[in-house]
What does this fold into?
Amino acid sequence: MALLELNGIAKHFGAIEALKGVDLTLESGEVVGLMGDNGAGKSTLVKIIAGNFPPTEGEIRMSGDVKHFHKPVDARAQGIEVVYQDLALCNNLSAAANVFLGREVKRPLGPFRILDYPAMYARAAELFKELKSETRPRDLVKQMSGGQRQAVAIARTRLSDAKIVLMDEPTAAISVRQVAEVLDLIRRLKDRGIAVVLISHRMPDVFAVSDRVIVMRRGTKVADKAISQTSPEEVTGLITGAIRTA
Amino acid sequence: MSTPSTASHAAIEEVTHLRERSFFQRMLTRQPFWVTVAVLVIIGAMTLYQPIAFASADNFFNITRNFAFIGIMALGMTAVILTGGIDLSVGSIMGLVGVVCGLLLQAGQHWAVAIAAGLLAGAATGAVNGVLIAYVGLPSFVITLGMLSIARSLAIVLSANKIIYQLGPSGDTFEAIGGGDILGIANPVWLLIIMALVFGYVFNFTAWGRYLFAIGGNENAARLTGVPVKRIKLQAYIVSGLTAAIASVMIVGWQGSAINALGTGYELRVIASTVIGGASLIGGEGGAFGAVMGAALIELIRNSLLMAGVDSNWQGTFVGLFICLAVLLQRIRQRPAD
It folds into this structure.
């Protein structure tokens, strides 16, 4: 039984059909590249999985059970985490504070419950170590490189033991060395049996880490192939519409 | 392949260096530290220059009491400014609360009723600000500017534009609360110290405080990570209204009368205190200690100029200069981080 199963997902915004009958399955430990031109429906699809809005038609199943997400919190409760394109980090806070934002660890102090800094620093350090990132918990995010910021955003998803991580353009606008770092982070997630959906425009990145590639065009899924059975040329053709389906 | 390895080596050196500059060096980059230094330098210089008039117990009693009111308001203002907002209505809230307390005391109500009603009025005014800003999504500058006008006007209407100086049977107790002293330190100063500790604790050790910083740092990120942004912002404005009300209760008790012009222009002194103390008007930066030290510095400058025999009309120039200096210092401190 698939970890995540989408059946006939459609989304209408007024007269605009952003998605038309999309089926998709995702298994544990699988990295799936989600590609498509701007406006192809990638973001809409991801937002439906992340619970930002419900689909107009179709159903979402996790391990066979039908799920309804009304808010991002609902999806998060089911183990679906999103790493946003802008990473959604607070520059003025430390790495640990960002990892634990909204899920702070507290300890009792007399009648009060105070933030447990040592516990959060220790746990964040563990997560960074697990991700093999040199990010340090006490450093402010504004002092960090793009790769370290990605590590912070990804460490956040590890906090809740997510089953599925959706990553929106994680390798856009960072240096070559940092891209390699981020791809390594994705492999770490995969090693831990986490399913990753990688939304990207960057063909080499998708081919470097993905097991499968899904191509969207004009709100429909036009291809869903194992990486070993396709090529960047074919995917490019599918994205632009030069190749109809595959 | 030596280039990348040297680069990463250098980066690590840089990072470890950052860590090794530890406590003392980190202090040097904190604005409250420098404000404290400025306060101590002024005190030292004035003590040498005017040992009798300035360094007297009476003068310290006055200085500390005078900035206590502003300091108390600055603590609430810090909560708002941390979220990236601003509250221009605190001076008017002070006036409105003063009139509410005065009228109730004049009508023979118990002092506790007057204080409760005053605090409620302050919190309610803050709540109106907060709902319009957090839930309706209107800009804080404009909404609190409107409230500055509304609250002041309500104070004038309620007081029928008269000074309320007959504070009724429980007026004595009310006056003792705001005007009294314990162990030679004015009550408002004790209250300021207690509130500064409470706010310092809240800002640094509670999730609520952490969320204020997060909202000011990146409101969208805070929302996406599940921080109840609207509720926290609403609460920040309520806190600001409440601290203005507390300051008002204390100041009316001290003065023994309520005038509807109470607190006029205080919003700027309060905001100046927080900014001098290291708060950033963009949000996400500031603290309780800084706000209090900022208020102390402003009052100290005013007092010192007075003691030095400088025409009091120059006070504004000096306070303004310190505000500009504070922002300049902030810019210099932040440069290495960018």
Q: What stands out?
A: The interface with chain A takes residues 4, 12, 15, 18-19, 201, 204-207, 210, 213-214, 216-218, 220-222, 224-227, 284-285, 337-338 of chain B (CB under 8 Å).
